[in-house]
Design brief:
The chain is α/β, with parallel strands linked by helices. Helix content is 43%, strand content 9%. A hairpin with a 5-residue loop joins β3 and β4.
């Protein structure tokens, strides 16, 4: 009986030690994750649990070989243009136009940011391509932008600036939009066939050029596919 009791106590001791080891490992893992999240928050990176790209994407675009030149100017978190809703998947790229002739990418970015004060509408975009081809990112790729209505939840959006009422992009804007779209498709494993217009979501005349001239839209998509194939 004494040996049986000793065996039982020894077994209980082993179980307790095993449980303690598991708890220590779990605590260490939680501490490690907590430190990473804290560092990301301090650095300004987005923190999105469950999305692999949240740990790899850099908002300046430098993580991908051959990426376009992107300037990161994130909007201040606010309910009107950067609600910080988690974008759990990316299944398309949506092309837009600003409908504000002559406005620069910086003008558009600042307009989005100012909605936190004016409260006039809900609007934003992940990227803005300017008249000279400059690219500003103002929403992290791991968050919603208020750009594409029912497709906000699974797409990235690109606003393109226009020089006049025709809605036709400058050559520099067009070239940058093609390169950016192709790069995003490659970076997030989105088929170029999933590049769409805002018009395709809601019927809104946006982008005007690509709605009024379907052949121009097909050329744009073809150019995106060509550029996509060039990215290794």
């Amino acid at each position: 009986m004494r040996h049986r009791n000793q065996y039982k106590k020894a077994e209980e001791t082993r179980v307790r030690r095993f449980v303690i080891v598991i708890l220590v490992i779990a605590a260490a893992a939680l501490l490690f994750v907590g430190v990473r999240i804290f560092r990301k928050m301090r650095s300004g990176e987005s923190v999105v649990p469950g999305t692999a790209y949240a740990d790899t994407i850099r908002h300046d675009g430098a993580f991908w070989s051959g990426s376009p030149d992107i300037t990161a100017e994130m909007l201040d978190p606010n309910p009107y243009s950067r609600p910080q809703k988690v974008l759990t998947k990316i299944d398309g790229i949506v092309i837009h136009y600003t409908a504000d002739p002559g406005a620069s990418a910086q003008n558009v970015r600042d307009y989005f940011n100012n909605l936190a004060t004016t409260h006039t509408t809900y609007a934003s975009s992940h990227f803005i391509v300017g008249l000279s081809g400059e690219i500003i990112q103002c929403i992290p790729c791991s968050e919603w932008a208020y750009a594409s209505n029912s497709r906000n939840k699974d797409t990235l959006s690109i606003e393109c600036c226009i020089p006049d009422d025709t809605g036709v992009y400058t050559d520099a804007t067009y070239s940058s939009a093609v390169n950016l779209t192709a790069w995003l498709c490659k970076a997030f494993k989105v088929s170029p066939d999933h590049v769409i217009r805002h018009y395709d979501v809601t019927g809104k005349i946006c982008p005007k050029w690509f709605v009024e001239d379907p052949s121009a839209w097909e050329t744009f998509r073809s150019d995106v596919k060509t550029q996509y194939e060039k990215i290794s």
